Amino acid sequence: MTFGLSPHAAGLLTRLRRFIAERVMPADAEFLDEVSVGDRWELTPKQVEILEGLKKQARALGLWNLWHPEAGGLSTVEYAYMAEEMGKSHLAPEVCNCNAPDTGNMEVFHKYGTPAMKKAWLEPLMAGDIRSAYLMTEPQVASSDATNISLSCVKSGEEYVLNGEKWWATGAGDPRCSVYIVMVRTSHKGPRHEQHSMIVVPANAKGIEKLRPMEVYGHDDAPHGHFHVRFTDVRVPLEAMLLGEGRGFEIAQGRLGPGRIHHCMRAIGMAEKALELMCERSLERKAFGAPLAELGGNYDVIANGRMEIEQARLLCLKAAWMMDQGDARAAAPWISMIKVAGPEVALKVTDAAVQMHGAMGVSQDTPLARQWTHLRTLRLADGPDAVHRRQVARAELRQYRKPS
Amino acid sequence: MTFGLSPHAAGLLTRLRRFIAERVMPADAEFLDEVSVGDRWELTPKQVEILEGLKKQARALGLWNLWHPEAGGLSTVEYAYMAEEMGKSHLAPEVCNCNAPDTGNMEVFHKYGTPAMKKAWLEPLMAGDIRSAYLMTEPQVASSDATNISLSCVKSGEEYVLNGEKWWATGAGDPRCSVYIVMVRTSHKGPRHEQHSMIVVPANAKGIEKLRPMEVYGHDDAPHGHFHVRFTDVRVPLEAMLLGEGRGFEIAQGRLGPGRIHHCMRAIGMAEKALELMCERSLERKAFGAPLAELGGNYDVIANGRMEIEQARLLCLKAAWMMDQGDARAAAPWISMIKVAGPEVALKVTDAAVQMHGAMGVSQDTPLARQWTHLRTLRLADGPDAVHRRQVARAELRQYRKPS
Amino acid sequence: MTFGLSPHAAGLLTRLRRFIAERVMPADAEFLDEVSVGDRWELTPKQVEILEGLKKQARALGLWNLWHPEAGGLSTVEYAYMAEEMGKSHLAPEVCNCNAPDTGNMEVFHKYGTPAMKKAWLEPLMAGDIRSAYLMTEPQVASSDATNISLSCVKSGEEYVLNGEKWWATGAGDPRCSVYIVMVRTSHKGPRHEQHSMIVVPANAKGIEKLRPMEVYGHDDAPHGHFHVRFTDVRVPLEAMLLGEGRGFEIAQGRLGPGRIHHCMRAIGMAEKALELMCERSLERKAFGAPLAELGGNYDVIANGRMEIEQARLLCLKAAWMMDQGDARAAAPWISMIKVAGPEVALKVTDAAVQMHGAMGVSQDTPLARQWTHLRTLRLADGPDAVHRRQVARAELRQYRKPS
Amino acid sequence: MTFGLSPHAAGLLTRLRRFIAERVMPADAEFLDEVSVGDRWELTPKQVEILEGLKKQARALGLWNLWHPEAGGLSTVEYAYMAEEMGKSHLAPEVCNCNAPDTGNMEVFHKYGTPAMKKAWLEPLMAGDIRSAYLMTEPQVASSDATNISLSCVKSGEEYVLNGEKWWATGAGDPRCSVYIVMVRTSHKGPRHEQHSMIVVPANAKGIEKLRPMEVYGHDDAPHGHFHVRFTDVRVPLEAMLLGEGRGFEIAQGRLGPGRIHHCMRAIGMAEKALELMCERSLERKAFGAPLAELGGNYDVIANGRMEIEQARLLCLKAAWMMDQGDARAAAPWISMIKVAGPEVALKVTDAAVQMHGAMGVSQDTPLARQWTHLRTLRLADGPDAVHRRQVARAELRQYRKPS
Q1: Contact residues on chain D for A299, CB-CB shorter than 8 A
Q2: Most buried of B29, B339, C20, D399, CB within 10 angstroms?
Q3: Where in the numbering of this chain does the Acyl-CoA dehydrogenase/oxidase C-terminal domain appear (chains A, B, C, D) (predicted)?
């Protein structure tokens, strides 16, 4: 088991770190300030300029599509270090074309897409010209058990017709978002995990309404957003079906593994950033005659932050290493573990950093509050904690069960 | 030690509970939806209608100013039950003229105000005609140690001149907010707790700028708001000084005791509401073939919620009972205890309720996310947890210290 | 809801507190030191002298059988204060004839015993002349689900014949232990909660073997002890059956309610004692130039201890108050709550006190380590935490379930 | 960063694992049962037979002195895997001559001993012919701040004369324990960390009294033991001084690094064993109609155990890897981190396993209770948690402090 970097990866990491620290982070606040200018769901000229400028630089520096094994030339372990860095900046993941849900969607097109899909969607996504969304969870059912998913998809002549609602369509607010991958129910018969399918729908298909932006603890995350969407007789050609009817779960598994772990890698980066802000603040501010760092239990708070981050990062690296071994089934419990542990630690450290900042911590004056709300969604997205803990427990118990 | 209600109080509680459940709660969402209509910092005609209509009803039912010992005829213990009910609704505290920071400010005017102040500010506040703000914390210093407070207040002829910045002026966004009570520094000499003073400043005084609304995890809490305010050569007459120079801490102590406990009482109400929503959701939603309630550790989650709420409520009642005994010094550690324990429990139960709701929990579709962000500020407002824990520990150790 | 004491109870409490502090506590260590003298399972002459001397004093002071509503003249709430005091001393419960499992057994004889049983067992127990044991849990089954209990009891002519094993027969090591109340299975048919019975067996009945003392984290708790016992064709007359066959659970419920709460009351006393020892130690010992109290997070540790004890005590008083209202079914969730919360808090505070004492804390030089091991068993005895949490959750959810 | 094993190490691990599972573990209970036969502080013939037989086997299999870099040919990372295995068995560390405090003492002799000391003590220790103790902590001072240590050591002619008390002299009960390494105070002047020294004292030196065995939650850990020892005019030659007066802390640092991490490695092994026992129990036992594993929150308990063990193990491996890099100062915070995290996780998992076992868990019928008490001491031995957390925090903050 080795968590080291190849010389190629080490060089990339150095470059990436500098690029993010010197170019991307300074632009984060400026970009976010523009959100309230004009229509929240349009990019302002300044936002476009910032974003496209940085994307061009990222490309030039070879920091583009690093998530992609071939494009980046990185193992999952190596990519973990990159994703951690990107997690420290609001813009960095998009700037490097490594942001969710696009990476997952590109992976789906890459693995399961037809040549036509690759041409139409994968290429512009890889180029950063368009964005995409992934429509899974629904308002009317407990999506933690994904067999509940109910958006109806019925064959009608040469087309499929979709009806129903999805919400939390992350990224659907972005005007550049051009394509949705949608989990649908194509059957009510047969094995529970073979009644669902995944289908590709252009974002501008007739019959799609964006009902409203969902808020995350009050944030609408414009212009990216998380939309509540209604499908009314939305029609797509038969070729839009991925792999074939009933194979939705197979695709979801393939898609979610890397996606989950990328979120966790970035969460580690956010935790590091929170710890950094917390340390700086604890040395700057004084109360009762001493820097905050030296008051009460603050050493414990800082030490716990460091200890928990280290452990979560190592677990994340091990999960990545397991994925690199090529046995998805063996790696699954490790992904579940880090899916639970990563956000948990990052939330805890971020919350402690908020407290160290006093009232400033809950405000817009640090990235902490926003970061916390994003991290909080990770305990629900792609399977809530309880479901992942159950997976871990079942894997653990399997080795003790008597063969029957 | 008795936590019971007099027949008068019991009658009030029944009436209050019904009024809030039947009239106020149903109006909460409608009122909040109006916030995004027009200028966020103006009340829309509909908001005015809702609010004033409910206020009239509250008055008619004798549910007005219950926080005030004489007006309400309630002990602190008895008021705790009322405040808990009000905590369950967004509008209820204001509808019953029991909301922060007005109650604390009214108390200050009542105890320390001149007859002119009582006429000018206390009477319209008691009548619900105006609102007020309390300006304590500052961006440049660690206000957890309030001796750091630095807004300058210098005598100049027949006036005081104020210069500096305050933030988190809660309620200052409301167009009806007419008066500020401001903690200022009037001296840099003498005992540390005698260099500060409290002074009354009309909200429309020349030289006051509302720089920007502070956000709480993205919420601006419009139209109430929490403002960052700048004072530039703001002039008030000498009579605006409360009690006299150097007595700021004395007033702050008198003000904060009841205020802190009122927040905690309402926090218990929020926790109860979260538990209620969590239970309902856990029975409604199904996954893996069973209601969520019966899956995994959810019984534990619900039981822990119930157990922790009960304990926090009892502690709150005991703190209230201590206050009713009339010895403020003896009651102080109890107020510190509940100041820590109340928000902690309410946050925990609210977070668990969020998790039980899945993605809906973090959204605008339940009051949980907003409630969480409000509760989170209570771990900082009126003294951060660490300062209150220190107070509790020092009181505890005092009895073991050798007399020297 | 009132948690106050009548003048009678207040007087008793004052007397009890002084008696325990001045007479009983000083004898604790002396008594325990004698355990290793001679046969651990006999009382040494010195132990007899200490114990009987103190019992005589307790009787003379009217501090005898306070647990018994008529003998003590106390409500459950009032008794809670007494039990808390007794919890602070190893010997006090026995000295005041208030110790487990005797009080529970006396209650069974009182409520369900025949006149002959009252004469033979209840009278000498009330007089402190004999001791008793309660045999419930078994090594071969998960006794958390008491319907698993399997010790066989079969009618044979004019006798019942018992066969099987019990363990954790607390008190069975005491040479004065004369009688066992035994939960047995008398049927394998009918409703699950009507297959078990409770029967009275003299400790010296033929066929009973004390196989071995069970250890609690290494302590055998001699001479009291917790024994693993085997029944081989043990015969008792038909009249030994309590209430009638199949009514074991009915009796167990009546027995366990008060017993559970008494344990919790004493646990609160242990927590108080731990906090006291912790505070004293934190002021006495110095490291890095300051008393431990002032180092790192120790204020937080002390404050948390105080806050959690207060909350647990109030919950315990409320559970007692619920019992005093006379509706056992309504009180049940409260007993479950305190059954979980009491030991949890007491364990936490005791563990923190151990840590504050350094290596001394884990040793025989303070009562902390022994106290911890005893408290740890309370998370299992009379139903493990998980079972009680489930009861609390089910009671909570009941109010939300749709009537079917 | 690589946590892999060389082929040599991998082979050793396979052999060690099998040897412990098949030979050593089955002997554990038998050995411990003998403790109560005859004098607890003598080895019975059967104990000698078991121990010496296994030691001979370990030697023959090349599983002897693996802790020693040269003897074992292992890196610290590689040894971590071995130590984890040994942690699962009571006897294994001694059987493989890898037990505390002997390894630390051998290291001291190896690094700092004179040729005479190596001949007299190191050789027989390496051969497993004698045992040793390390006398650091004292009853009268807070040894968490080791500058408090006060056992007096005064030069008198050609000898040093020692007076004072030590306690928790682990291993001093063993009749084969022949030599003590003792931390003493040789000066009251000069820098705080140069007033102490380390000196070698034969266990049978005149003037040494073993006052009493210290108990750990009731266990005396005979025949190994933890003794309270008094030195009265104990005389040793000047050559007994290690390195020279005033260099005690220098030696202690060199000694404690590896020792601390070895404890943690074994703690991980104990945690694994607890998880294993917990899983087995949860599948075997039934309550309410299902295996315990499927009831309530037990999946969460098991999953948390697995997740926390994985993280702690990885942190331990990283600390080992840091040590292998050869920069002791850089590795120090990592050792502090694992010193806190290792026992914490192992205690938590062990406690959860106790709970899953019901009353059996607290008894002598599983290794869990004993293991818990041992693990609990690790939160105090070699520096309490708070001191290590402080070290971690200080290292963290160092990078943010402005150079002055």
Answers
A1: 389-390, 393-394
A2: B339
A3: 246-395
Give the whole-angstrom CA distance, residue B96 versus residue C179: 64
The pLDDT, as a whole number, for residue C311 is 98
The CATH class of B130-246 is: mainly beta
Q: How many CA atoms lie within 13 A of A402 on its CB side?
A: 5
Say how many C-beta atoms besides its own lie within 10 A of residue D364's C-beta. Answer: 19
Average of per-residue pLDDT values in chain B: 95
Is residue C403 pLDDT above 70, yes or no?
Answer: no
The set of residues, in sequence order, having a beta carbon less than 8 Å from that of B88 and lying 6+ positions away, is: B20, B25, B269, B270, B272, B273
Q: Are strands A226-237 and A196-202 parallel, antiparallel or unpaired?
A: unpaired
Per the listing, tokens 């470059």 go with A15
Give the C-alpha separation, B314 to D150, whole Å. 49
Q: Is the pLDDT of residue C20 over 80?
A: yes
- The pLDDT tens digits for D266-296 are 999 999 999 999 999 999 999 999 999 999 9
Asked if D7-99 and D249-398 have one fold, the answer is: no
Question: What average pLDDT does the segment D127-150 reach?
Answer: 94
Q: How far apart are CA A263 and CA B188, in angstroms?
A: 51
Mutation to test the D interface, candidates A264, A268, A276, A299, most D Cβ within 10 Å: A299
- How many Å lie between the alpha carbon of A191 and the closest alpha carbon of chain B? 14
- Return the partners of chain A (3 or more C-beta pairs < 8 Å): B, C, D
In this predicted structure, the answer to whether residue D12 has a pLDDT above a threshold of 70 is yes
Interchain proximity A396–D279, CB inside 8 Å: yes
pLDDT of residue C93: 97
Can you tell me the mean pLDDT for B74-87?
96
* Cis before B223 (ω within 30): yes
According to DSSP, the residues that pair with B65 across neighbouring strands are: none
pLDDT of res. B143: 87
pLDDT tens string C264-298: 999 999 999 999 999 999 999 999 999 999 999 99
Select from 2.40.110.10, 1.10.10.60, 3.90.1750.10, 3.40.50.10420 the CATH code of A115-122+130-246.
2.40.110.10
Q: How far, in Å, CA of C16 to CA of C21, rounded?
A: 8
CATH architecture of B249-398: Up-down Bundle (1.20)
Identify the CATH class of C115-246. Answer: mainly beta
Please tell me whether the overall predicted TM-score, pTM, comes out greater than 0.90 for this model.
Answer: yes
Cis peptide before B101 (omega within 30 of 0): yes
* Mean of all residue pLDDT scores within chain D: 95
Q: Where are the domains of chain D?
A: 7-99, 115-246, 249-398
Q: What is the ipTM of this complex?
A: 0.96
**Chain A: closest CA distance from residue B380 (Å):** 6
Q: Is pLDDT at A82 greater than 80 in this prediction?
A: yes
Q: Do B303 and C4 touch (CB under 8 A)?
A: no
| Residues of chain A in Cβ contact (below 8 Å) with chain C | 296-297, 299-300
Residue A218 pLDDT exceeds 70: yes
Mean pLDDT calculated for residue range C366-375: 96
Distance CA D303, CA D306 (A): 5
Chains that touch B (3 or more CB pairs under 8 A): A, C, D
Residue D291 bridge partners (DSSP): D286
